Amino acid sequence: MNKKLHTALFIAFATLGGLNRAGAQAVKTQAGSISLNDLSAFAAPPKNWVIAGNVHADLDKTNDFAITKGAGILVNTVDEKNPGHDLYFNLQHGDLDLEMDYQVAKGANSGIYLQGRYEIQLLDSWGTVAPKSADNGGIYERWDDSKPEGQKGYEGHAPRQNASKAPGLWQHISISFQAPRFDANGVKTANAKILSISLNGVLIQENVELSGPTRGAFDNKEGVQGPLRLQGDHGAVAFRNITYTNFDKPHPTVSKLNYTVYKGAYTTEPDYKTLKAEAQGTTPTLTSNEVKLLNEYLLRYTGTIHIDQAGEYTFKLSIPGGKGMMHINGATAVPLITNKGQGKIQLQAGDHPFDLFYAKTVDWAKSALGLTVSGPGIREFLLTDGNVSSNDAVDPILINATANTTLRSFTDVPGGIRVTHGVNVGSPTQVHYTYDMDKGMIVQVWRGGFLDATPMWHERGDGSSRAAGSVQFLGTPAPAIGKLTTADAAWATDTAGTGYKPKGYILDAEDRPVFRYQVYGSLVNDASTITDGGQGIHRVITIDGPAANLFTRLATGTKIELLKGGVYTIDDKYYIRLEGDDKPVIRNAGGMQELIVPMQKKLTYSIIF
Prior knowledge:
By secondary structure, the protein is mainly β.
């Protein structure tokens, strides 16, 4: 945790306006990406920060990066013997959406400081089962030296689950931050808030209020603006694809609202001149509460929407149990939708007439009207009252793997493919995988929560389940073992269906499945366990009298590279590490690369992620 206060940088950011308080002018709307062709996007960058073309971490060496010259990647090159300094962006921000890819070296520690004051922890938390606030994706604790030992740190927020990847693999973080609010006298009226953090596709923080700066803040004087900052004194870390939206514009407002209620079941917008109104009036708020009918009605609103800045605006409409649409200036803002939908429209600054209708025809749905807007410099904002449907049908049905757990279900994978004979294997170490018994391959691996069985078990269900953690897909389902006349030949087509015959699975003494199948007449046993420390999947495939020219496909990707120690990286998303004397081959096939190995009596390797 960085405790230093760099006076020179502090002064530089005071000069740039990073310490503005209430009443200061909002900066010009900023949205886009940070160029990493050089260090010009940063204020007085310390020498430990460099621009690179590529980086690779050593899984067995702390704070070690192999750096390739080039551009596009920001790298902190410090280690324990050569501590560096933090990096400040030129970007000043209030409300902010921020996304980036990052990777940490083994044992590395860093952080993202929003407004220079509120830290989102970045850490090598690989294999941690019960993450804390100091782990990857945590909101770091506040600090008070006047408190007794053991109580100095407080208000830290651990991530909901550990969605972290292994050192040297690119991770993706998405952060939505709401800056603290102040009145005209500079008195704080609302705390800063982390609206959400998603790590590697998993929501790990939501609606977390920050009563003040976390430990290591560059100052403790909260403000409406502050510099984005990366911690640089605790370990080797790299960043790329940094994008942001700085929200600093007033949100649109609605006024002159008139409503009319018509009785009847409508599926399209009618000719209102031919209808008799059931009720009508004016209201200060867009709401469905003006309707006294429970079902089969049409609610129409007309009014004015005010826009401060010209640009493209996105409107989202939520109307459970019915249909609806919205027009602005006579043009379609939201096309005809059922239950919920959205649309985009270009608007000039100023006042615009709008027309909205909501036709409810489903009796079991509760009346609710939700309309949000987002646009240039404007985070999504609710224009209606709080009577809004979440559109969530039911609470999720989650399955936790408190012991070794096996559950069969359909599994949907990218490309619109459904694995119909999938077996989900869960572990209390929070490392899990799905096995396709039709192909003899591991389809996906993930860490964190085990399964969301809502699609399978709610009411009649559709038989499918979803991984409840951070998923790594291992490629389009295809036979794991097949015939090749040479290492660069095409896979033999098994038109007769004699090459692969599934034989189910048995459970070992610890309730872990051993999958069995025949391949070209030879019996195969396929057993996977969790590696020590929960770092991945350890797989052992044994075959009784393998036929000639059999190869095992270990991985498919766009870029497969051999690193130190016989470790292969697949698209920088996961690793393959082989044991024994097997000699894998990287080859091109169908516009992709494959990692294959001749099949002997036994193959042992690990999938590390």
